[in-house]
Amino acid sequence: MFAGFVRTVSVAAFLAAVFAAPARADDVPTLQIGPSCEAAGRGTVVLGRSKESCIADETAARDALQKSWSKYSATDKQQCLGMEKAGGPSSYVELQSCLEIRRDARDIRHADPLESERDPLSTRRNRR
């Protein structure tokens, strides 16, 4: 009986390893959205939000990230994924928001000569 169980578990582990698509370094990570959407369904995150609507939003965010993932900087990905792992239940919506905010902030900094990081703070203050 025990040998049959071990064989079944071994076969299952082998099949999971063979058929699981290995994540490439520049692929959107696989996040476990279940806990976040379970909480949403219980109304502990936002009242009136269902688990199904949460899953739909998460799926849409993941699809959008798959299309634009290569456009985000490696630094932004690393920072946002670090915050995502440390900040509670995983969410593609939050990951997407983090990446967009970091990208947009950098674009604003580079577009505004008064906000150049190369100038000392005292020089920037004198220009204003």
Task: Give the helix/strand layout.
Layout: H1 2-19, H2 34-41, H3 51-68, H4 74-86, H5 92-111, H6 121-127
The ordered H/E elements are HHHHHH
Count of helical regions: 6
**CA distance, first residue to last residue:** 80 Å
Question: Any idea what the shape is?
Answer: elongated
Give the integer mean of the pLDDT values: 74
Quickly count the domains: 1
Describe the biggest sheet?
A: none
**Which structural class fits the helix and strand makeup?**
mainly alpha
**What share of the residues does DSSP label as strand, in percent?**
under 5%
Strand runs, count: 0
Helix content percent band: 55-70%
Q: In angstroms, what is the radius of gyration? A: 21 Å
- Poorly predicted ranges: 1-24
3D structure, described in words:
This protein has 128 residues and is an all-alpha fold. It has one domain. It has helices at residues 2-19, 34-41, 51-68, 74-86, 92-111, 121-127. The longest helix is centred in the last third of the chain and has 20 residues, at 92-111. The N and C termini lie far apart (80 Å). Residues 1-24 have low confidence and may be disordered.
Tell me briefly what this model is.
66% of the residues lie in helices and 0% in strands. It contains six helices and no strands. α4 packs across α5 (92-111).
